[in-house]
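Exercise 7. Predict the joint structure of the components listed below.
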Amino acid sequence: MNEFLAFLDQVWLARFVILRGLGLTVSISLLAIALGSVLGVLVGLALTYGNRPLRFVVRAYTDFIRGTPVLVLVLASFYILSTIGIELNAFQAGVFALAVFCSSHVGEIVRGALQAIPPGQTEAAKAIGLTFSQTFTSVLWPQALRQMLPTWVNTAAEMVKASTLLSVIGVAELLLRTQEIISRNFMSLEFYFLAGLLYFAINYAIERFGKYVERKVSVPS
Amino acid sequence: MTKNLLEIQALRKRYGSVEVLKGVDCTMQQGEVISIIGSSGSGKTTMLRCINMLEDFQGGRILIDGEPIGYEERNGVRVRKSEKEIARQRALTGMAFQQFNLFPHMTAASNVMLGLIKVKKMARDEARSVAEKWLERVGLGQRADHYPGQLSGGQQQRVAIARAIAMNPRLMLFDEVTSALDPELVGEVLQVIKDLAADGMSMLLVTHEMRFAFEVSSRVIFMNQGVIGEEGDPKVMFLKPQTERLAEFLKTSSFA
Ligand SMILES: Nc1ncnc2c1ncn2[C@@H]1O[C@H](COP(=O)(O)OP(=O)(O)O)[C@@H](O)[C@H]1O
Ligand SMILES: [Mg+2]
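Solution:
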């Protein structure tokens, strides 16, 4: 009991540090998910509708990124980009790496969702005289969005977990902050547990939000 | 002589190296109801799909009201028209499919309204009232705000027909619209088509319902291995087939 009070005491002492770490983790994740999703939609469109050379290039990109450990992407964008004249600070480099990682996954999700739509949908749209862009915006994309929502939510949760890797390049996100705190008070079990709980809370919120949107847009049947 | 609504001249279509339509000729006047019969794989669907350019074709011409569909001659070379132009030409015909192909994320009314709003540039309110009128006509006035997943197969197909007809096409194409339906739902869809025929709608319908083809058509076309094997008045076609092929086909079909 005393130990638990001591832990709470330490948490109280470190509350701002923890909150700043949490804030940074959330910012990194949101930025990476947002940028990665925008880029990923473009990747998915290229994979689905691009001509052969474009598809080949984009396919190579996604396969390469998906075959590379995220940690390697993070280290590479921090240490290697600067050698070719792109100067990013640790935060920017980390977000960039995560966004790239996210885009390759979202690209696959988008491609899969679009290709899962029966060809009859496009044909019916053509038959009433819709152009391709009209067909895409009114018929294909709304169906693809519904279909990919659950997988996209999973990817978003993966991004939150992957954000911990930014601790390696010194971005003071939640994990690095936790390690700092532990190095001062040696309560490793307790504070790792707390960090775990906070990550869980973020992902739980994402999941609930996803379920909420899913319900909102679900088609009655 | 009346101008032809539809004119198909020496239509040829290949899938890869396999020729599926081997020179189809056919003309059709406004108000005609033509049934296309023939065994599976004879090219009936392909012919309909060429008429609204869901399939490219390699030879021959298709004209609607004298206007060449899909391709034009430029300096003596046959070129495919622009996608935009083809989209416009597709709206000259309406098509109903075997699998209905309703947009599952839209209500019955929205399915019908989409083309009216996007292609005909109708205002929402006007499109809504046109959609309601046509849903009423196919007996689904009460189902306007239902989603396809909430409708029976027969109801879905009737919405799909309303969606096509609402665009006010010159010609309706029906491709085995009752084949995917449970037997007890076939009648309601055929009745809708009969009503449209009675209104003078020009239509070309591929069907396996021989009794229906016999009753509703002004002319019947028998497709056989990529060409028209025989065509003529339904009474002659069904009761006194002129070719061995057609006689054989009728024996194996449901027409009794
Ligand atoms: N997309 C396609 N690719 C290759 N062959 C096809 C395709 N669609 C149809 N075919 C072939 O073309 C022929 C005619 O098909 P279809 O027009 O569907 O016949 P029907 O509607 O009379 O049953 C068939 O031999 C069929 O296998
Ligand atoms: Mg067919």
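Discussion. The two ends of chain B are 37 Å apart (CA to CA).
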